[in-house]
Amino acid sequence: MDQGHSCEKKSQDTLYKIGMFAAMNRVTIKALRYYDEQGLLKPACVEENGYRYYLLSQCADLHQILALRNMEFSIEDIRQIQAGKPEKELLQKKKQQILKEIAELTAKLAQVESYLLEEQVDSATHVLIKSIPEVIVASMRVTVENYNALFELMPQMGAEMERLGCECAMPEYCFTQYLEPGYKEEQILIETCEAVTELKQDSKLVSFQKLPEIKEAACIFHKGSYDTFPRSYAKVLKFIEENGYEICGNIRESYMDGVWNKDKEEDWLSEIQIPVHKIK
User: Fold this and answer.
1) What band does 214 get if pLDDT is binned at 50, 70 and 90?
2) Which CDD domains does this entry report, sorted A to Z (predicted)?
3) 11 and 106, same structural domain?
């Protein structure tokens, strides 16, 4: 960077003070100083009094910087281009990044529109993708005649767990796993599970196992009677389909509040948890 008392003597081309150069290019003086500090666009020369001067030919360099910044290229990206890296290579990379962001935003928009179509939107209608931690469980695997028979197992299982000296984990996690794909009205193979603090010796009724973490599960809360579960299932399954996921494990129904601690059915609270992964 040239310095001296008279920049004009060092160039046959017209030199423009920073204020004029900024006005010509519709940028701020602050922006030009920033690009100078970052080494992207140095003034043609600087007087000893600190006045910066630019050449008209530097407008093209500035326009390239501004265009790349408008496309959200980083300062480091622009440095690489100025150092000789093919601009087309970085443009292709930026294109893929933008397409990915568009896909993600489109999925979010579809989710918002889906909620807007609901007659009533509340916390129980929202689907969330989250992980389910690894858990040690006491479990009973049985085939039940119908869904009503499912809850008749709970007291029997609780009594056996007490006999075996089981201590329930905190926070409590009681759930049923459906071990067959698809929906059945009768002869349903299920596994009812209760999170416990340690593995015990299996008995004739209850066995113990460590279930691995579920990396991604589509989850929805369900408030009210179990008879209305199909409505919540419809919502979460629609979410899975519309957002490019597929089911990859046993569906769980987690029971938080129910007949054992709530007098009214409308206060019962459950969560449907469906293991999923993105379709490539």
Assistant:
1) very high
2) HTH_BmrR
3) no
